[in-house]
Design a protein that fits this description.
186 residues, alpha/beta, Rossmann fold, two-stranded antiparallel ribbon, 8 helices, 15% strand
Length: 186
């Protein structure tokens, strides 16, 4: 079984996936796959974005992030370079034995939902996501808003989703909602 979990930045996808992991699902973190893609496609990324994004021989995401989150065209260019590699990698991982959960903010945009038996959207309003980003990632409010606004709102993709879970309220209630979904899937 393959479960897809999507939602905007700081909506609670990581927590939901961790609970699936506790239930025996193998977690495929598309963000981590993206880090691998930056290295696999490093030469083209450097050709397009310049050597100033490097830290030694490695792409420094802290240097690349403000460039792509502040400019939609540059973000699309980066996606053009790394997304095909990432999609192939996620497909390969889902073919391995066992149950999997795909953690992907861009599950729909990357067409990874086609690999899933069930798609779950975790929703959090903008202010909640911004507060979490500031606390969790140490971003400024402006940086957090840039990241939130760089994504298509999950609500626009709900026709691809089987289950919606709200994560604006009590954390324990959110975790219980995820556990109930897992129990129903089993």
């Amino acid at each position: 079984m393959v479960i897809g979990i999507t939602g905007n930045y700081c909506s609670g996808k990581n927590v939901a996936c961790a609970l699936f992991g506790e239930a025996g699902f193998r977690i495929i973190d598309v963000d981590s796959v993206g880090h691998e893609a930056l290295e696999a496609r490093r030469d083209e990324v450097v050709r397009v974005f310049g050597k100033e994004i490097l830290d030694g021989e490695t792409v420094d995401r802290r240097k690349l992030s403000p460039i792509v989150f502040g400019n939609a065209e540059k973000r699309k260019e980066l996606e053009r370079i790394v997304h095909p590699w990432m999609i192939r990698q996620v497909r390969r991982l889902t073919c391995e034995s066992g149950d999997h959960v795909i953690n992907a903010a861009l599950l729909v945009e990357m067409c990874l939902f086609t690999l899933c038996d069930v798609v779950i959207a975790v929703l959090a309003d903008e202010e909640t996501a911004v507060e979490r980003a500031v606390q969790r990632d140490g971003l400024s409010r402006k940086e957090a808003l840039q990241r939130v606004h760089s994504q298509i709102p999950t609500k626009e993709n709900l026709h691809f989703v089987d289950k919606v879970i709200d994560n604006n309220g009590d954390f324990e209630n959110f975790k219980q909602s995820i556990r109930s979904v897992i129990a129903n899937l089993r």
